[in-house]
Amino acid sequence: MTRREAVPALLLLAYGVWFASRALGAQLLVFDDHPGQLFRAWHVVARGAAPWAWEPGWWTGYPELQFYPPGLAYAGALLHRLSLGTLPLAAAYQTLLWLAYLAPGVTTFVLLARITRSGWAALPAAFVVLTFAGGAPGIASGVEGGVHIGMVGARLAWALLPLLLLVLLRWIEEAGRLPWLLAPLVATIVLTHPAALPAAVVLTLLAAHAAAPRGARLSRAFGGLALAAGLTAFWTLPLVLRLEHTRALAWGELSLAGLARAFTTQPLLPVLVAAAVLAVFARRDPSASGTRSETVVARFLPAMIGVTLTDRVVLEPMGIRWLPADRVADGAWLALVLAAGVGWARVCRRVGRDGALSLGALALVVLLSLPGGTLVLVRQPAEWPKLEATVRGLRLEHLWDLLRRVPDGRILFFRSSVPLVHGTAWWRPHTHILALTPMTTGRAIVNGTFTHPSPVAALVYRGDAGPGALTSLAETRDGVSLFGRSLATLDADAFNARAERLAVSAVVVLEDDLPGVRALEDNPVFPQRLASPPFVVFQRSTPVELPRELDPSRWTFQAPGEGWIGARLAYYPLWTASAGGAPLAVRRGRDGGLEVRAPRRGATIELAYRPGLPEKLGLVVSGGAILVCAALARRRRAIPVPPCA
After folding, report:
1. How confident is residue 290, by pLDDT bands cut at 50, 70 and 90?
2. 171 Cα distance to chain centroid
3. Residue 285 has pLDDT above 60, yes or no
4. pLDDT per residue over 77-110, tens digit each?
5. Which end of the chain has less Cβ packing within 10 Å, N or C?
6. Distance between CA 307 and CA 297 in Å, rounded?
7. pTM of the predicted model over 0.85
């Protein structure tokens, strides 16, 4: 790195470290989704790295990482393991949070400095990416979504996109062969957050199209992407073949009205578009270095706009919601800023004095971001709560100690979150810190976590575990409804029937919600009321028997009757059952539970949970792909893959 690149890089890092030290610090951030993300890393440490590993702590059990990108959880667990336990899991997660905040700005700076040959020209766009809050509601990869709220995987995948283009630069400019790093990098993007995959594919194909012979280069690009698919097959193959056992989280929506509102209320966005137009339409000097790379960046923006619109206008109306358009749009926002960065670099080349110009542009960017809050430049301490203060303020140690002593069974929370300030709006600052209850107490819970894709979660949110996307956030139902019914109309009989099937022995209600909770008024099943302000706990007089875990793959329980009986665990096709060595039939119950056909009352039922053919086949495919990548890396040559059939 030259001095002209080092000075703006240090300025960018200095600001980033200053902001992160104030907003994140060294103690675990517990705003919104962060506790649940930590729980998933703990799941890897406690239950193993297999995506289909059963997690009994949430929602009557679920293969927690099979239907959620596992990359962040793997990274947190790996940091903890590599330190031999000296780095606590919470500290490992906080380290990743720092990385997630800083990485998009750093990778964008390195990429643009390499393409434009000017660190100063790269600085304004890198600063925008670092601090971007979002040009429309719901962007997952900006500071608000990816750092503050806790969609950390989305931001990390976003940061890897400039790195992918950086890896492809030599192939773009000097032709030759495809870099072998393409496949593992795209695989990492998929495992971190698949919503960034369309952008990764678009970048790869644009890089292939940047030079001749285009046909051969496109074939190699498809081969590299196929190898990346093979690397992720251990997760993606079971994911695709088991989709019926999850529920799409399609609660966001990308709308033209929202985009129009963003562009009219946030003056920075039209300026970014104007700078991007210079990259897309301005005439380029064919003899200049980096011309092909600038062309790829310029074409990235219209290509991602087309992909996003196709997802929103064509795929989502067809019911294909697994890659929501409002998430795919994050790639388009990144493309806009990258194109604006290239356009700005062209201005600097024509005028000269890129250092002074870029510092002025940086000041203008900050001023233009203030009216609409396009960038997150400062933080409000109350909205970045830390673990110790939150536990102390909510008296959670007292609550958790109480929950350790209630009768055996699961804990049902009436809310998914706990508000951190007074008010009634569901979006006011809140935390899903109750998601840590299985870690702190050893007790399994229902609800108390962020919007979740399990069928049992759908049962709690909307009253049925059937197919169909979850179209609203769990927080919108907090203090309003449970099991698809308003708290004012949910009577004791209906509530007790659900609680029995979910094996609930204690119910936790926020004090503010008590006046509207009809189901627990003089409830004979939950007669005991225990106060733990700001919570109230209602408990059974007798325990509820749950299956006993012998090891992570074997469970057992006594049949309460003959014929089809509920096992009080969620259904998943990896379950098998037997009694005395004889196999028993299993099926999915109407509420998403596992049912077993018991031979007689009192029979000892043994449940086994083992990977099936899709899981084993995915491992084999990924193992083969790893061997191919290792061979390619050892030879330090490009990927000599044949055209895809």
Report:
1. low
2. 31
3. no
4. 999 999 998 999 999 999 999 999 999 999 999 9
5. C
6. 15
7. yes
Query: What secondary structure, in 3-state letters, does 71-136 show?
Result: HHHHHHHHHHHHCCCCCCHHHHHHHHHHHHHHHHHHHHHHHHHHHHCCHHHHHHHHHHHHHECCCC
Question: What are the DSSP calls for 422-474, one per residue?
Answer: SSS-TTSSEE-GGGGHHHHH---EES-SSS--SHHHHHHHHS---SS-B-S-G
Residue 644 has pLDDT above 60, yes or no: no
For residue 493, count other CB atoms closer than 10 A to its CB: 10
Residues 55/43, Cβ–Cβ less than 8 Å: yes
Region of residue 544 (phi > 0: left; psi between -120 and 50: alpha; otherwise: beta)? beta
Q: Residue 388: how many CA atoms within 13 Å on its side-chain side?
A: 3
Element (H, E) at 482: strand 481-482
How many residues does the structure list for the chain? 645
406: tokens are 């209630």
Q: Which residue from 446, 442, 465, 441 is spatially nearest to 455, judged by alpha carbons?
A: 465
Place of tokens 């390195």: 110
Contact call for residues 435 and 415 (beta carbons, < 8 A):
no
The torsion defined by the Cα of 427, 430, 435 and 439, in degrees rounded to 10, comes to 160
3-state helix, strand, coil in the chain (%, to 5): 55, 15, 35
φ, ψ (nearest 5 deg) of residue 617:
-65, -40
CA 130 vs. chain centroid, Å, equals 19
Distance CA 282, CA 305 (A): 19
